Amino acid sequence: MSEKEIKFTVCILNKKGKKDLKTFLDSLREEFEGFYRWGKTSSQVYKSLMKQKHITFILGRSEREIVSMTYLLEEKETFRFGIVIRKEWQRKGIGIKQTSFTLKYAERKGIDEVRLSCNLSLMNWYTSLGFHIIQAFNDREAPRVEMSILLKKRGS
Q1: Burial of residue 153 (number of CB atoms within 10 Å: 0-12, 13-18, 19+)
Q2: 93: left (phi over 0), alpha (psi -120 to 50) or beta
Q3: Number of domains within the chain
Q4: What CATH number does residue 104 fall under?
Q5: Which residue did the predictor score with more confidence, 59 or 30?
Q6: Does 13 fall in a domain?
Q7: CA-to-CA distance for 32 and 37, rounded, in angstroms?
Q8: Is residue 146, in this structure, part of any structural domain at all?
Q9: Does residue 28 contact residue 88 with C-beta atoms inside 8 Å?
Q10: pLDDT at 38
Q11: What is the pTM for the complete model shown?
Q12: Is 86 within the bounds of a domain?
């Protein structure tokens, strides 16, 4: 299956959905080592995500495997966005498709704003998708920015 044939599905956190999510996170140990500089393992990330009351996962599946995941985590006045793509599927346009699918889903659900935190190397990529910087963090080990997108104004 090519990147054009990736299917995106909203993951319901029933027994099968949780098992799929855990399997996917466990398969990404290498990606998580670079992504989570604070030393969290994929198992710790899974446990942390499962404690959240209002979280939606969207999985990107090829014919054989889950290749990508986004999540929307409800916070006080907004939703937090995150994305992980299997290393061998990166730089094939899946991130754009997955992010667009997730933002359209969020907009249909009545979500007004989505926020994320990313490192500086991804800042321009997120800007190209419509996110704007709301705060910068000058952490020596991991400089990053907080970004936001207002969904109601995207289509205008």
Answers
A1: exposed
A2: left
A3: 1
A4: 3.40.630.30
A5: 59
A6: yes
A7: 8
A8: no
A9: no
A10: 39
A11: 0.75
A12: yes
- pLDDT of 53 reads 63
Structure tokens at 39: 């030393």
**Crossing angle between the packed helical segments 42-50 and 15-26, to the nearest 10 degrees:** 150
Amino acid symbol at 99: T
Inside any domain, residue 10 = yes
Q: Where are the beta strands (DSSP E) in 6-62?
A: 7-11, 55-61
Which domain covers residue 85, as residue numbers? 3-111
Give residue 13's pLDDT band: very low, low, confident or very high (50, 70, 90): low
What pLDDT, in 10s, does the model give residues 93-110?
A: 999 999 999 999 999 988
CA torsion angle 87 145 129 10 (round to 10): 60
Give the CA distances from residue 145 to residues 68, 84, 115, 118, 121, in Å, rounded to whole numbers and listed in that order: 22, 18, 10, 6, 10
